[in-house]
Amino acid sequence: MAALDYLKQHGLHVEPFSGDKIVVRPSERLNDELRAWIKAHKAELLAEVRADSTDWLSWIADRCPMVPEDRSHVARLMLTLHPRMQQRLAERYVEAWRSAADDEPTYHRRDNAGRRAANLIITKLMKGDDYV
User: Fold this and answer.
1) Which end of the chain has fewer beta carbons closer than 10 Å to its terminal beta carbon, N or C?
2) What are phi and psi of 41, to 5 degrees?
3) Cβ proximity of 69 and 119 under 8 Å
């Protein structure tokens, strides 16, 4: 996390944006030297920001079963969120999964009920119909 730490020392925060883009805030703190440093270390910054979201995917997978499609569905949204929002999303995802699975009376349908409820949260957030 050396690249992210360097920017944190300068009072800056990095967020992933769509594709291979990042957003560095607050922009008022950026000077020409920092802009040049960010350009030179963009790939490293992007990798570190993405690694942060991967940690939340592992956290979710430790608490409820995820198939590869679930993982990619959640990861797409995680990469667009601020780290604090990633945590809130992960917590909501697990909470929805467990609640729906617990409410399903038929044992062999519980995983699918949990998966459907949790992934519906992701879909609504991506469409802008809900918030974290």
Assistant:
1) N
2) -115, 20
3) no
Q: Which two tokens stand for residue 6?
A: 């360097």
Tens-level pLDDT at each residue, the chain (132 residues): 688 889 989 999 887 766 677 888 888 999 999 999 999 999 898 888 777 656 788 889 999 999 988 888 888 888 778 777 888 899 999 999 999 999 999 999 999 999 999 999 888 887 877 665
Per the listing, tokens 């993982």 go with 71
3-state SS, the chain, equals CHHHHHHHHCCCEEEECCCCCEEEECHHHCCHHHHHHHHHCHHHHHHHHHHHHHHHHHHHHHHCCCCHHHHHHHHHHHCCCCHHHHHHHHHHHHHHHHHHHHHCCCHHHHHHHHHHHHHHHHHHHHHCCCCC
Rounded to an integer, what distance in angstroms lies between the CA atom of residue 92 and that of residue 23? 25
